[in-house]
Write a structure and sequence with these properties.
The protein has 400 residues and is of the alpha/beta class. The protein has 17 helices and eight strands. The mean pLDDT is 96. The structure holds 1,4-dihydronicotinamide adenine dinucleotide.
């Protein structure tokens, strides 16, 4: 199947004007496309447009664009409010690419795609911004799943350069290549991921949170100490607990549960009671004023225990688990080694790519850490990736 030429003259549709959709619309319009921004709620459109206008005004203030360019970008975006189930999607009929960024619910997305494919031209491409659902399952709602793929932006799409391009099982390879080139032309940095739970970033990053929670639950260290170790000794911008409070405990727990369930309950991804309880209590993090830490005015953050040996133990345990995930993602062909490392540095700001980090700290050393954890706990959670074991035995590195 031939895809439409992806020139600037092609109209782009974005469905869902929330945090992600409005940002994606801004990115596409900034590149030069006419954009139809669709939502079922007037309030979402109003909020989405207000966000876009604020960003554009800031870009003028910072002399990144002129005021004339700001106006041009803004006029390229046409907001549409309608009922997605009852022909309201007609405004998207001439869009060559439609990116869906609605609520994260498989049935709702499937029904939207089935309706949408009857409205757009036969050669239009349909993309989903899903972060945790199967692209293949969304595409299978369509008569022509060959033109359905995942285009996974990170939050906020205007600032974060990483985009995971995810072909489903039935997606046409040529369409995937052309969408990837287009998103690169939008100024993004794309990586190719297989349609597997969490794709690259949301899969590999899980131990940053999960292993930190385990260490806390076992009483090895408190939260400020774990955060200190990962920040000051590990070089991460934020510690796991600070970051979970920033992301939102409900969102982080949902991502963990989704990967855990979708991997048929692989214990490496097992959620923790601590996070479940915080979520149940409504201690969701910065947005509710309380999470792992107290954000009320005058609250005093407990001091970490700055013991280097303890800090090193925490850092090496979490890093080994992260490297293990990265190696397994490579082993199971989720993505290439280069894309895995680029995804983690651009998508979640890791100070180094995990596979390059493995080369640096030593693959045999990482296998030793994992094997010791596995022997001590007797849990499959700590099993070293077969790839790491093979490489350690043969003295290989990831990047020569
Ligand atoms: P959001 O809740 O901010 O926005 C969703 C928007 O979709 C709302 O404005 C809602 O009115 C609209 N909507 C819901 N059902 C609709 C329908 N049937 N037709 C048209 N519009 C509909 O959600 P957010 O955070 O923007 O997420 C959107 C998608 O992007 C989800 O699939 C999410 O998993 C994914 N995603 C979210 C990220 C994040 O950090 N928030 C990061 C990467 C992906």
């Amino acid at each position: 199947m031939m895809a439409k030429e992806f020139g600037k003259e092609m109209a782009v549709g974005v469905i869902g004007a929330g945090a992600m959709g409005s940002g994606i619309a801004e990115v596409a319009a900034t590149y030069g496309h006419r954009v139809v921004l669709f939502d079922t709620q007037q309030a979402s459109i109003d909020k989405g447009l207000a966000g876009i206008e604020k960003n554009l005004a800031r870009n003028v203030e910072k002399s990144r664009i002129t005021d004339a360019v700001r106006r041009e970008i803004r006029t390229r975006i046409s907001p549409v409010v309608g009922d997605s189930a009852e022909g309201g999607l007609g405004a998207l009929a001439d869009c060559g690419l439609v990116i869906e960024a609605i609520v994260e619910n498989l049935n709702i997305k499937r029904s939207l795609f089935a309706t949408l494919e009857e409205i757009v031209e036969p050669d239009a491409v349909l993309a989903t911004n899903t972060s945790s659902l199967s692209v293949t399952a969304i595409g299978s709602a369509c008569k022509r799943p060959g033109r359905v793929l995942g285009v996974h932006f990170f939050n906020p799409p205007t600032l974060l350069r990483l985009v995971e391009i995810v072909p489903g099982l039935a997606t046409d390879g040529a369409i995937t290549d052309r969408v990837q080139s287009l998103i690169d032309a939008w100024g993004k940095s794309t990586v190719r991921a297989s349609d597997t739970p969490g794709f690259i970033v949301n899969r590999i990053a899980r131990p940053f949170y999960g292993e930190a929670l385990r260490i806390y639950e076992e009483g090895i260290a408190d939260m400020p100490t774990i955060d200190w170790a990962m920040r000051d000794l590990g070089g991460f911008k934020m510690g796991p607990f600070e970051l979970m409070d920033f992301i939102g405990n409900d969102i982080n727990l949902a991502a963990t549960k989704s990967v855990y369930e979708a991997t048929f309950y692989d214990s490496r991804f097992k959620p923790t009671l601590t996070q479940q309880q915080l979520s149940d209590a409504g201690f969701l993090g910065q947005k509710t004023g309380r999470g792992y830490y107290d954000y009320s005015s005058g609250a005093v953050r407990p001091e970490p225990t700055k013991n280097e040996d303890l800090g090193d133990l925490i850092f090496r345990r979490i890093l080994s688990m992260l490297i293990n995930q990265a190696a397994d993602a490579l082993y199971y062909r989720v993505a290439s080694a280069q894309d895995i490392d680029r995804a983690m540095t651009l998508g979640v700001n890791y100070p180094k790519g995990l596979l390059a980090w493995a080369d640096e700290v030593g693959i045999d050393e990482t296998v030793k850490w994992l094997t010791a954890l596995q022997e001590f706990y007797g849990e499959e959670r700590y099993r070293p990736s077969p790839l790491l074991k093979t490489m350690a035995g043969d003295g290989f590195t990831f990047f020569g």
